[in-house]
# Entry
Amino acid sequence: MGYLNNTAVTVDAILTAKGRELLARGDGSFRITQFALSDDEIDYTLYNPNQPSGSAFYGEAIENMPLLEAFPDETQIMKYKLVTLPRGTARMPVLDIGYSSITIKQGASLAITPQTLNYLSQTALFESSGYTFTISDVRLFNSFTGVGINTPDVQALNQSTTIGTNVSKTVVGTTLNLSATTVNTLFGSNTALTATLQVIGRDSGARLQIPVTVTKNN
Amino acid sequence: MSFKRLDPEDFLVSVDSITATAWSTNSPTLTTFFTSSTTSTNDSYYKNVYQTASTLSSAAVQFAIAYGNSKGSGSANYNDLVPGVSPTRTVYGQYRNLVYGSETATFIFATVTASDFWAISVDRARYKEHLLKGTFNLQIKSGSTTINLTDNSGMVSTDTYLDCGRVYQIISGSNGVANTSINANGYSLSSGSYGLFLPDIATIILNPLALSQSIALEPSRTSDSEGNNITRLFAAISGAASFQVNSEETVTSDYVFVRARNSEFNYSENPSFISGSTGDVIFSNFINSPQTYMTTVGFYNDSSELLAVAKLSKPLVKDFTKEALIRVKLDF
# Structure
């Protein structure tokens, strides 16, 4: 990790770990079709609308900051996306999944159905394109499936398998069904395993990340 | 919406020619030359030349020198019962096959046929893909006489090809242009050109007849006897201390043009953009005149899996009065 030279506007593109995995798979799933923008690292409390020098200087504390190089871990970058909303939006979409953290016993199952607050002039709604669920370590679950969205792309994504290492897994659906691992050897001498679950509204871009803990039965 | 689809015209494949200095010193001209003092079974065939003492960790092979002779002269026979078959004969056949692709061809320097040659092969890591024509400048010194050699690419309008690709005559001069003091085309007085410059296989073939005539640098052509001809050329190059050539490679790059229209990406899901848990934007003036600062571009597949990311070197401000066009180079 290091700082990028900020004397010129340059872009430094790297593959994520997921990108490398899909590239190695060679089944056509590595195909860039869309993009998103994010403002990771930006602290908007540095924006000062009371700056005595005038509005041109409101963002001076942000505009000249040097940025860190890109992280290849897809769960640690593109966290906070820029979203397209109608002008005059006073409240940003917020996700509600009913949990601030999840603790689940070995072998137990759980269903999560998120909803989005403050979106499309509604207090709460289920996004029609569903939600993207990403678990940072897929080994913690025997099953991690999204249901409720049946487009070909989503079906292909939900049916893909990832084996071997502690890579992330992403599924799409209106509901996430998960079942904690029954494999004792994963725990080693630990009594619990932890990971993070990231939920993103596919229409709103709203994002939520919570810790997930799987506790060992014995 | 946080994702935007890319159109086919947003993708561009660009092929660029990249040239660079060939040598490990990153200097256009190599001025110091070293060989390894450790003897090797390959010494009869070739010697590697380094930019520094070969015992130093920074030492890297820059090029190799070999000598070939069609009659096997200049080195000891493999077997006394088979005269004329020696390392120099092997080297001759090796380069003849490489350059002409024929077992009956002879090396022709302009109009003069020669039965032997010195070969300089630039190390693969140094020349990348090709040697760059017109950048070859080699000084060779014998006794007190020095000659400047270059390729004649600056004097020909049409490239000539052999089985090994492009071929240029090596002439007296510099930077691809002849020194006309002896011959209008830069050749030697009566022994043809000074050699062949073969950029596509990064090889330089030198004509001993021409070098002998111009600066009295001559290989030993005694049969069944070690002539130390490789060392002779090394000493001549090392003595003059000036060897310049550049590398050339073709780099294919994929570019993606990311376009953010004025009405797009003006709000953020950044926690610091929001005040409290209700989702209220942090500043009241952000309701009608929001400002965001983009720092990262993420590229996704149809399944919204993050495949690649690009970071800007500084935050780029975005609001309803601005549009952004970012060119991202995909180097993987």
Observations:
- The helical segments of chain A are 17-25, 60-63, 152-159.
- The CA atoms of residues 91 and 118 of chain A lie 6 Å apart.
- DSSP finds three helices and 14 strands in chain A.
